[in-house]
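Lab notebook, entry 1122. We have the chain sequence and a SMILES string for pyridoxal-5'-phosphate, and the next step in the workflow is to get a structural model of the bound complex before anyone spends time on docking refinements. Request logged below.

Task: model protein plus pyridoxal-5'-phosphate, output C-alpha cells.
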Amino acid sequence: MELDSLYQEVILDHYKKPHNKGLPVGEIQVHHVNPNCGDEITLSLSIKDGVVEDLIWDGVGCSISQASASIMSDLVNGKSVAQAGVALREFTELMQSKGNISGDEEVLEDAIALAGVSKFPARVKCALLSWMAFKDAAIQNGAEI
Amino acid sequence: MELDSLYQEVILDHYKKPHNKGLPVGEIQVHHVNPNCGDEITLSLSIKDGVVEDLIWDGVGCSISQASASIMSDLVNGKSVAQAGVALREFTELMQSKGNISGDEEVLEDAIALAGVSKFPARVKCALLSWMAFKDAAIQNGAEI
Amino acid sequence: MNPPFDVAAIKSDFPIFEEKMRGGKRLVFLDSGATSQKPWAVINAERDFYTKHNAAVHRGSYYLAEQASAAYEGARQSVADFLSVDSDEVIFTKSATEGLNLLATSFERSAGQLGIRAGDEIVVSELEHHANLLPWQQLAKRTGAVLKWFSMNLDGSLDLTNIDEVITEKTKVVAITHQSNVLGSVPDLPPIIAAAHAVGARFVLDACQSIPHMPVDVRAMGVDFLTFSGHKAAGPTGIGVVWGRAELLNQMEPYLYGGSMIESVTMTDSTWAAIPRRFEAGVPNMAQAVGLEAALKYLSNIGLPNIHSWEMTLTEYALRGLQEIEGVRVLGPQSMQARGGVISFVVDGLHPHDVGQVMDQYGVAVRTGHHCAWPLIRKLGVVGTTRASFYLYNDLSDVDVLLESVIGARDYFRKR
Amino acid sequence: MNPPFDVAAIKSDFPIFEEKMRGGKRLVFLDSGATSQKPWAVINAERDFYTKHNAAVHRGSYYLAEQASAAYEGARQSVADFLSVDSDEVIFTKSATEGLNLLATSFERSAGQLGIRAGDEIVVSELEHHANLLPWQQLAKRTGAVLKWFSMNLDGSLDLTNIDEVITEKTKVVAITHQSNVLGSVPDLPPIIAAAHAVGARFVLDACQSIPHMPVDVRAMGVDFLTFSGHKAAGPTGIGVVWGRAELLNQMEPYLYGGSMIESVTMTDSTWAAIPRRFEAGVPNMAQAVGLEAALKYLSNIGLPNIHSWEMTLTEYALRGLQEIEGVRVLGPQSMQARGGVISFVVDGLHPHDVGQVMDQYGVAVRTGHHCAWPLIRKLGVVGTTRASFYLYNDLSDVDVLLESVIGARDYFRKR
Ligand SMILES: Cc1ncc(COP(=O)(O)O)c(C=O)c1O
Ligand SMILES: Cc1ncc(COP(=O)(O)O)c(C=O)c1O
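Result returned:
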C-alpha cells in the first residue's frame, strides 16, 4: 500500500516516543507555526565551538511533523554546524524531490525514512517545520548555516 | 440602414439647433452626469400653479443626449406637472422597450423620434439623462411626479 | 431515504467525478464546505461569455460591449431574483472574504450613523470563520472600536445568556455566520438580530455556508447585509456577492477606487456613482458573474428545499454512522437539531492530518485542521478536526465510503 | 509590413472572431486597451481546472487539493518567470484596480518608513487612469498626505521641468503609468524613477497597458511595485497581479483579512503569514490564475518582441491613415516616438459617441468617451475621444476598415 511508504515504521516509532522532546530551555527560543494546519514547534539549542548542543523541542502536530522533529533532533545534536547544514540542505532537497530521489543514508540517517513524504505535497511542510525552526535557531545563535 | 432609425432627421435638427438651451437661471438648478461617457446637463425650471415653466438647460453630450434634452424641454415647458409626468413615464418605458414599442405620438410628440435609441442599449442613458434631470428638478420644486 | 431528485443524473452533470483519485479510486468529494464542484452548465456559461460576448462592460457603445453589459447586468438581475432583492442592491465581489472586508472598510470610511469610531462596539461570535472575524477585529484595532463576541457552547450553539451585555447602546455592527463551517451548527439568530436592531445596530450575515444549501429569505430574516462566495455554490472561483439594503448602501463610502465607480473626477476630488456601481471599481469579473448566474439557476432548477432535505438525509446517515464508530468522537451538535450538512469529528489518539491521509487512500476528500476558525478550535480543546461536508451530488454510498475510511484510518494506526 | 508571425492563425485561436456583429459584419476589434479577447488555450485551461483539479488550495491534504495547489502555485511560478522575478513576490488580485488599492491601503496601514502619514507626499501624473489616481487621491485625503502630480504636455508626454518641486524629500510614493491608456504615449520614466529613489520614495508602475504588449524588464527599470490585469493580456476576467520587491512586501500590512493569510489568530489578535499568502485572503481565484498562466504562455510563445513590433506596424499604418483624413484630428503623440499601440482622435464637430456608433455599423469596436481618465481629457480640452487600440490578432485589413469607418462616420453626419 502506497500509504506504507509514507508511514514507515521508523516514523511511527519516533511519533510514539519522540526524542529530545521537552520544555525548550535555551536563551534563544524559536517558535514556528504551519499556518495551514496549525502545527507548532518551539525549539532551543546552543552552539559551542561550532557544535550544535542541547537541542530540545516541544510541539503539537501530525505524526509526520512530530517524527521529523524527533529525527532531526537526534541527527543534529552533537554535530558540527557544517555537518548539520549539509543534512539540512540534503533533507530539504529530498522533501522537494517529489519522490525522485531517495536520500543519502550516510548523511540523513533515520531521516531517509521520510523520503516517502515527498510524494505527498501537502505533507512536505509538516516534515520541514522543525528543520526550518532548527535553521532559524542556529542563525539566531550566530551560526552560518 | 439601421443607423437611420437611430439618427432620425428630427434628432439631428434638434441637435444642430437645440431649443431652450442657455444658461439655467432658476433658483433650483440640478446637475446630472452620465459617468459612463461624461455627458452633463444643468437644468432649471419653475412650477407655477401646477404648470412647468421656464425650463432652461445647458449641457454637453452626443447628438442623442442633446436632441433628447431639446425635445424634452419643448414637450414639458408649459405642460401641467401631471401631463409632463405621463410623458416622462411613457418616454422611460419607450427607452426600455428594446425596440418593441413605438410610443404614442399624442403624448410624446417629437420624442417618438427617439424610439430607435431603445435598440441601442448603450445609448438609452444618453436619451434619458435630461429627462432624469427634469424629474429631479420638478421634485426639488415640490412637484409630485 | 429516497432522494428528492436523481442524484446519479446530478453527479453526471459534474465532470470532475470522472477523474480517478490516488490508486485509481473514484472521487468521494466531502469538502464542499471549502469549495464545491462545478457542473457543465457553469463551465459552459463562462466559455460562452468568452467566445461570444466578451468586451468591457459599461464602457463601449459597440455591439459586443452591449452584449457584455447585458450578460453582466443580467447576471446581477438573476442573483437579485435568487435572493428576492433589488438588483441595485447586489454587488459583485471576488469572494465572501472581499465582501466582508468591503463592508468593514466601508463602515470605517462612512460618515454619520453608519461610521465606526473609537468607543463604538462591534459584535461577532466564537463560531466565526477568520473571514468574518479578522476584518472586524482589525477594524476595531484601527478605529479604537471595541470588539465583543458571543461565546460558543460545546454543542456549537451560541451562549446568549449575556446578550444584553454583548449588544448594547454602543453596538454599531453585529456580524455573525448563518452556519458554522466547522461544526455545521446553526446559531439562533432571531434574538440576536432583534437585539441588534433594538439598539440601532446593523446586522451582517455571513451566508457562505447557507445560501448554497438552503432557501434563505433575507427580507424575512431582517438582516441588513449578507455575503457569500460563488465557488461554494457550484459557481466559478473569483466571484462573490454582497447584498445590502439600498438605503444603507446609498450612504456608504466605496471600498475600491478606480474606473466605473465615479460620477466625476478631478485631480484633487471625486464623487461617486450610484449603487451598485459605486462598489464595483474596474473592469469587473464578468465571466465569473455569468458563471455564478448559471450556478444559481442550476441550483434553483433542482430546488433549494430539495437540496437541503437531501443534505439533511445524508448528514443524518453520516452522523449516526460516525457516532457508532468506536474511537470516533463527533464534535458540536450531536443531533439533527439546528444544524446543516457539515460534520466535524476526531479519532482518538490520531492527528486529523493522519486521519485525512488514510481517508485519501479511499478516494475520500475531507478537510482537516483548524478550518480557518482557530478560536473555535481552541474552544473545543482539540488541535484540529476532520470535517465532512455534503452537497447535492453526494449519495449514500459516499457516506458508506466515508465511514469505511474512518474505520480504516483508525485501524491503520492501531495495528502498527 | 510583414507580420513576424501568422496573424491569420492567431486570429483563428480566438473564437470570438467567428461571431457576427450588427448587420452581419465581421468583428474588427480595436478595443484591446479596455479588454482583450481570449484564445482557446485560456478558455480550455480554466475548463480543465474545473473538470480535473478543482479543490480549495492550501487547505486539504487529499489528492485533488494537492492538484489544485500545484496548479495554483504553478500559475504563480509562471507569472514570476514571465516577469523574471521570485514567485514569492507575485500576488494574485482580482484586477489591477484591486492591486493599486491594495498597495495604497497597505502603505496606509504599514509602520515606519513604508507608512504614509499626514504631511507625506504622494506623486502621480495627469496621464493616469482613475485606477491609478483615485486610490492615491483618497489615501491622501484619509491620511492628510499631499497629492502632487506631473502635468501632461499636449503631445501626451509629461512635463518634467519642475521635477525637483514635484518629487521632494517628503515624497513617499510615486505611482505612474507605463503608457497612457488614452493617448498611447509612454512617459519618460527613468528620470522619475531615479528622482524617486534619490529621495527614498517607492515607485509603483501601472503596467496595465505595457505588460500585455511589450517585453518589460522590471528589475532593469528599477521599479519597486508593479500591477496589471489579466483580462487585458489575453487572460480571464477576475485576475490581476501585484509584483513587489520581497524586502518591501515583507514589511507591509495586509489588505484583505481572512482565511489563509494568517499565522495565528485569537479573538483579539492575529499575526500574518509570510508573503505572498499574507496578501491573498480567502479561497483564491484559482481557475483564473491558471487561465492567466495559459495566457502568458500563449503570449510568450509568440514572443513579446514580435507582438510589440507588429503592434507598432499596425499603429504606424493607422496613425498615418488617420492623419490624412480631412476633419480628423489625432490627439497626443503625432509620431511613432515614445508611444504604444493606442490612438485617440476626434472628428470635427462630432461627439465621440456618434462617431463610435457609426463605426459600429462597420463591425468596428472602438471605445469612446473619457476612458476613465477625466483629468487627462479635460487637459486636452475635448469632451472625449474615440480610441483605437491594437493587439496581436489585428491585421492591416482591420486598420483599413477602421479608416473607412471613420470616413463613414464623418460623412454620415455631414451629408445630413
Ligand atoms: C492604465 C490603466 N490602469 C489601470 C486600469 C484598470 O484595470 P482594471 O479595470 O482591469 O482593474 C486600466 C484599464 O482599465 C488601465 O488602462
Ligand atoms: C463561514 C465562512 N465564511 C467565510 C468564508 C470565506 O469564503 P471565501 O474563502 O470564499 O472568501 C468561508 C469559506 O472559506 C466560510 O465557510
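Notes for the group: The first strand of chain B starts at residue 29 and ends at 34. Worth checking against the assay data. The mean pLDDT of chain B is 94.
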